[in-house]
Structure formats: C-alpha cells, structure tokens
Amino acid sequence: MRSIYLGTLLVWLGCTGFAQQGSAHPTDVDEATFASSRLRIPEPMVFDLVRPLGAPKGELEVNSLFRMSEFGGRAVLQWAPEVEYTFADGYGVEFEVPAENGQLEAYKFALQGKLKRFSGRNYLMGWQGIAEWERSSGRVQTDLLHLFGLQMSPDWSFFSMNGMRRFASPARDLAYLGNHTVFRRFSPKLELGLETNLQASPTRPVRFMAMPQVLYRLHGYNFQAGAGLTAEEGLRAKVAWRVSREFQPIGGGPPALPGRKQKFDVSGSPSPKLRNVSAFCLPHLDRKAHVIFAARTEDAQTVVRRSVRG
Fold this sequence. Notes:
Elements: H1 2-21, E1 34-36, E2 41-42, E3 60-71, E4 74-88, E5 91-96, E6 99-100, E7 103-104, E8 106-115, E9 123-134, E10 140-151, E11 156-166, E12 174-185, E13 190-201, E14 204-218, E15 221-231, E16 235-247, E17 261-264, E18 277-283, E19 288-296, E20 301-309
Antiparallel strand pairs: 1-2, 3-4, 3-16, 4-5, 4-6, 5-8, 6-7, 8-9, 9-10, 10-11, 11-12, 12-13, 13-14, 14-15, 15-16, 17-18, 18-19, 19-20
C-alpha cells in the first residue's frame, strides 16, 4: 500500500501543487512529449527521455507510464510515476519509482544532456545515463545511451537510442540496448508512431518489443497509448499508456507570454521621431520568438520584424 500512496502523491504534487506555483511553458504547453522541443520530434512512450533535448533551465514534468501484460496466466500492471527537472540549459535529471501492481519494485535515477557540437539544423544528439536500484536484492542496473533525433520532413520524424546495459545480476553481464521510433504528424495535437525496443545479450534471451502508438495533446496534458507485442521466449501482448504534464516554476522561462503585448521605453532613443514602441512575442517551431516592433513616427508607422533566441 505504501507504493500506491507514494505514486499517487507524486502525481498529485505535479498536478496540483506545482500548477498553483507556476504555469505551463510560455512557448508550448504540450512540450512534455517531445524528444526535441526545437525540432518537434516526439519521444517514445515506453522508453521516454528526461525532458526534451535542449530544454531550458527550470522546466518541470510529471508523468507516469502504465503497462498491462499477462504473466503466468494472471494480469500484471506495471506503472512508474516520475518527476523530471532541467537544472541547467540542456541538462535534466529524473527520479522514478517503478512498481508492479501494488508493490514498489525499485528506485530509478537518470541524467541526460545534449551534445550541442553534434547537433544541426534538422538533427540533434545527446546522451543519457540511468541507474536503477532493486529494492529486493539491493543490486544496481545501469544504462548508458547515445541519443539521435532526425526531422526527416515537416510531418515525419525519427528518434533513436543506442547503448549498453549492465545487469544487476552477480555476473554483471552486458547487453546491447536499442530503441527506435518513427512518428507521423497529422496535426499539432495528433501524431501516430511505431516504437521498437531491442535488448540483446550473449548470455540472455533476446527481448524485442514493437508497439504502434498514438499521441494526443489537450490543454497542456499529453496522452500516449499503444498496443503491441513483446518477444522473449514466446510472444505476449502488451498494452501501455502514459500521461504527462509539464510545468514552469516561478521565475523560469521568458518574461513574455505568447501574444502578450509589451511596451518599451524609447525616451533615450537616438531618433526623436519615435513616439511609442510596442512588441508582440509570437512562438515559432524552432523555439525562436518573432518580435514585431511597431514604431510610430510623425508621418507613418514602420513595422520591423526581428528574430531573437528564446
């Protein structure tokens, strides 16, 4: 029962307490399901990220993955509430509590960063490290992954995670770990994708998963759901869903909300013809804010468009 209370508390804190202290991110209230907020590449549902690659400092996300499958003729619900936070630009940390039915199984910590030198206009790279401590045995399982995202077109995207897993068994054997996802965008709210996951080790059975999934964004909440198959000494059906919410603590993010008009003091301007200047901050897909300055002169109104980094 303690695990149920702990998981409920984490979700409750994210959906109530933080919502009262801050607001959703001013550039995109549905950013939690993106692998990259700049390129708008969705992240996989089962093997998710620690915030989007390149997320600014101060972002907070609360989410939980739920997986329903059958083991030994009985239905098993695996669920994992988690909290993600970016402590610096491009760097995030995660704390997760995996559970099975009503039993808390482990504590999981993750650290993620973006490789800025290896990121371009339509692609980006990063890294992720994961440590999972099993409560029953006290052993620690670790993962080290390379992250790669590619925006193939305005509607098609690809995200890949490749690395090694070190098991918590006494043998401490290694395995290759790969997760590859393709998404098709149909609207700003709706995307369909296919996620595959592979674990291959010379000392263990190969584990493979394929899960078609749907991603839907609504009023700052993000819903992902899918159904697929897992193969490990036999086929098993699996159903999974994830609910996430992103929050911006007080003092974080740009000072202006999208579409919010701001006045600028131009009394010290070298041009005496300027009477007043107003600006409108509009969001853009690549995380730039287009600021439109309307400068009124004595004889006409001049409009100047300037792009600034958010």
